[in-house]
Amino acid sequence: MTFLFWLISRLPLRWLHAAGGILGLLAARLPGRYATRLDENFRLAFPAATDAMLADAARSTGRMMLEMPYFWSRKTLKAKLYDFNDRVWPELDRLQDAHGKGLIILTPHLGCFEVLPQSYALRRPVTCLFKPPHQPWLRDFVERMRGRDNIAMAPATPRGVRMLVKALKRGQAVGILPDQVPSAGEGAWAPFFGKPAYTMSLVQRLQQLTGAPIVMVFAERLPHGGGYRAHLRVIDGMLPDDPSAAAAVINRTVESLVADAPTQYLWGYNRYKHPAGASLPPQAATDPSTP
What we know:
InterPro entries: LipA_acyltrans. This protein has helices at about 1-10, 15-30, 35-45, 50-75, 85-100, 115-120, 135-145, 160-170, 200-210, 245-260, 280-285; strands spanning about 80, 105, 125-130, 150-155, 175, 185-190, 195-200, 215-220, 230-235.
């Protein structure tokens, strides 16, 4: 697998985006749960979405998948970045240095999230949370491929959470995917495009423990392998004490960024799944017809 990733990474980014677009569209045309979920989730968020937009969203998923070997296997970052140096990095530096409490950087499943930790790590250390695969060999592979100078990989386990807290208390940054569905007991229900979504409470807990400011960033994928443009939202002040209210703030911020590039969100991800053992979502809990 390492050799395959290396081989793919040698191709120009525009070729990978072209091939990924074809593969993503083919996957969405196959009958099955993935294609249905992509269509339903996109139309829930954007009822006026056209078939052309859905096709572009499918292509974006394929491009996202082929970006992984490209960025994981290259020792140096070779991608054109726009609005990073003149807008995003100065704002992140201001937030991190002004408070001295570290910085919580949230990167949703939007655009190219692999380029963000690598580009940030060229300047400062960052500890990134990841959900380790169940297979030990695959877990080791992912951690080895994604880790590099100035990037520490923290598994979504108690040990990994301690790594995040320690990094923040050292005044460093941490990176988290805020729309990753957590396990039961580790999240709260909050609206996401009008439908209850089980949302991690870790971000709120980290801020309560450290007082770190929160910022949300995504890298918009430009056409024909032309690079990436950064988008930024700052979540002002402290999140609410109520976990559901805090999750709602995070989800609204994700929605705001998705509106900047609707077809580049990972609509095929099962964002609305009900983790085993989690409480019922609010609508189901109040619906007398629910068994």
